[in-house]
Task: inverse folding
């Protein structure tokens, strides 16, 4: 028997607020990342294009962060990536989130290396705040659009290679033999990032070595994240088609969506399918969905309290969304998410503890089912000799539904 504590109640209110304002936190984080990108690009834009985007004095102060040879290439790369990925954050892209975390971490490390002329704590604090806000918000950046991921991955690879090639070219006299043209710089970077390492060109100064460390680190992370967001999902989708694995085994419209697979959910699924209804089940665990007993069930793996998961399951075309988890607080979260769909849909919430009944009603589901409460009432009526028939059961159920309707 699960009970909503005061802390869980606060989480419920918080999630209701977050669901109601779907722009949070991706929009503030996107704006903050774009501002950080402009701050990195400001001295470069001032020096090359004459654009004073943050004020001359401020741009000059930013220009003191790193050595002039590294300034243009390092800050340009970081700034360009943050600006590009800020759009991805706005679109809640998981690839953009991962890239921003890595780039901001790299920017912080760069400011603390021997390349920095002086430490600007205000800048470190600003980047640190963005990083600390990004990390706990990872669950909000859950979109894995392959086309969008490919676009951001391509942009990341282009910026990375531009940073590496231009850096090797500008630091050319710090290598043996010296790198005197862009073609040689490109060759050297490709050999370095791919870990071939012929050894025909080597760095001879600490500055060049630190630069190569950044290239290798960023190269591994950007390539890994890009592959993970683009090629691997595409390969898995193709493999599922070849092996006959199903992603969707039915057309998701005019159907029921059951969130969770508790005992109540399992029995409800069986009764609905026996009556010829189409049912999609949302499960949190991918391992659970691989159980052979679910081979003929249309399963969506994800968080049922996330609006995108409900959309994938066809929530806007469903007859009803049934929150039948064993956790009353999670059932409330599912109802809140369902109410944010573009089209209204009926909702059913299961209540496992009678003490949580009023809390569940506050999220206004279309129907409330409390099997534990109903079962105890029917058992008491039977033991005390009261009349128990189908009309009595329906009166109890419809009585709960009426209380919810009155609230609406």
Result:
């Amino acid at each position: 028997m699960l009970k909503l504590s005061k802390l869980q109640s606060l989480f419920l209110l918080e999630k209701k607020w977050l669901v109601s304002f779907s722009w949070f936190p991706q929009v503030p984080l996107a704006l903050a990342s774009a501002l950080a990108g402009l701050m990195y690009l400001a001295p470069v834009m001032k020096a090359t294009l004459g654009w004073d985007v943050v004020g001359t004095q401020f741009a000059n102060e930013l220009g003191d962060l790193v050595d002039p040879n590294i300034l243009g290439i390092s800050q340009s790369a970081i700034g360009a990536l943050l600006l590009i990925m800020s759009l991805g954050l706005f679109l809640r892209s998981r690839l953009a989130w991962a890239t921003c975390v890595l780039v901001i971490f790299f920017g912080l490390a760069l400011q603390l290396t021997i390349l920095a002329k002086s430490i600007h704590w205000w800048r470190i604090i600003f980047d640190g705040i963005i990083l600390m806000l990004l990390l706990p918000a990872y669950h909000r950046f859950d979109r894995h659009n392959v086309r969008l991921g490919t676009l951001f991955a391509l942009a990341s690879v282009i910026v990375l290679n531009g940073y590496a090639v231009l850096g090797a070219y500008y630091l050319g006299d710090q290598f043996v033999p010296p790198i005197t043209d862009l073609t040689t710089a490109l060759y050297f970077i490709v050999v370095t990032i791919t870990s071939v390492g012929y050894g025909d060109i080597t760095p001879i100064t600490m500055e060049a070595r630190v630069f190569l460390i950044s290239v290798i680190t960023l190269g591994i992370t950007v390539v890994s994240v890009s592959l993970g967001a683009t090629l691997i999902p595409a390969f898995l989708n193709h493999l599922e088609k070849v092996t006959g694995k199903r992603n969707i085994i039915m057309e998701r419209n005019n159907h029921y969506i059951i969130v969770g697979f508790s005992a109540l959910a399992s029995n409800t699924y069986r009764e609905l399918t026996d009556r010829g209804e189409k049912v999609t089940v949302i499960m949190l665990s991918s391992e659970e969905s691989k159980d052979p007993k679910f081979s003929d069930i249309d399963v969506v793996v994800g968080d049922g309290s996330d609006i995108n998961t409900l959309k994938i399951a066809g929530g806007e075309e469903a007859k009803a969304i049934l929150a039948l988890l064993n956790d009353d607080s999670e059932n409330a979260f599912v109802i809140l998410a369902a109410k944010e769909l573009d089209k209204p849909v009926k909702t059913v919430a299961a209540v496992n503890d009678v003490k949580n009944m009023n809390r569940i009603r506050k999220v206004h589901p279309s129907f409330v089912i409390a099997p534990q409460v109903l079962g105890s009432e029917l058992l008491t009526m039977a033991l005390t000799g009261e009349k128990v028939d189908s009309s009595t059961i329906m009166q109890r159920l419809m009585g709960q539904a009426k209380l919810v309707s009155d609230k609406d």
Remarks:
- The longest helix spans residues 146-170.
- The radius of gyration is 28 Å.
- The domain at 256-407 is CATH 3.40.50.720 (Rossmann fold).
